[in-house]
Amino acid sequence: MTVFSLDPDRIVWCAALRALAADTLRPLAERGAPGRVNRPLLAALGEHGLLRRMFASGALDLCLLRESLAERCTEAETALALQGLGTFPVLQAGTSEQRERWLPGVTDGTAVAAFALSEPDAGSDAAALALRAEPDPSGGWRLYGGKRWISNAPEADFYTVFARTTEGAGARGVTAFLVPGDRPGLTGVPLDMLAPHAIGALTFDGTPVGGADVLGAVDGGFAVAMRTLDLFRPSVGAFAVGMAQTALDATLEHTARRRAFGGPLAELQAVAHRVAEMATRTEAARLLVYAAAAAYDAGAAEVPRRSAMAKLYATEAAQYVVDSAVQLHGACALQRGHPLERLYREVRAPRIYEGASEVQRSIIARALYRERPSGAGARGETADPQGRAG
Known about the structure:
alpha+beta; Butyryl-CoA Dehydrogenase, subunit A, domain 2; Butyryl-CoA Dehydrogenase, subunit A, domain 3; 3 domains; four-stranded mixed β-sheet; four-stranded antiparallel β-sheet; globular; EC 1.3.99.-
């Protein structure tokens, strides 16, 4: 693989994003209510053109947006990403009427979007969805069932909802619908999570949807979901990289000035080696994320595998880096309100959402065996599905 580096314009852009997040977006985030949609923050993202830039750019710029914002304001990063996740199905599969109705409000930050895929018994297994779309005499459907752990619920203005339209068909029987938040039969409640942000459970009790609400083709919703996740999985990794970089920077500052055992902590070999490991994992994660995003933008065939690798490694690396930062800071980092205490809570969720780490490993392994040339290997070896050479 060739050496990868960002061009000068993108480097300058990322620095400007970090400054905007610190100076403008962070104060708005701090005034928001925990566990609620922060509409003034969304409006600021729209006012500064970040939402429009997200939809007009490729995967690499999406990753740079998320990483840069995450370094200075994770709330702004999350607000931006959730607008993208809920809206990208409309952008890629929606009709002209659907786009005209919702995209202007999303890009200026006045319409809140949500991606409603997860269910109590179908989190990472998107093909096992149980939300039913039952045929209605009017020619449409009625939705029955529930969704859970849906970001921006129950306050979103519209939801991209994935429901089963054909029983017994697995992934081939799922349809994507665009459902306005005020549709009859749709209710929701907020959920209290470890790191509070707007997230909730939805109940559909005969909620009507019709042909005008379908995103893409009937029974083609699984592909809509997977194309969305292929784009956003590397950017989840970028979010993790931003958190890791923040934790690393804080650790460098702390260990350089904090004195113990007759000198700075940085002079202790155990500390220095831990910091070196934190930096190496952060940089490795960053490069995996950028490579996956570049592959997506180039239309490469191996996008699902690269996206899974980036999401897996970056989120696991960020967990290690933030945990190490807390360890090297000591008790002060455990105090409520400390920046690392907040990061310690926030860094845990990305290893689960948009496909848990275990799911990413399965995706990677399946892709590797699928991509492997048939017949003997380069030196005549064969391998069974468990990976043992024979």
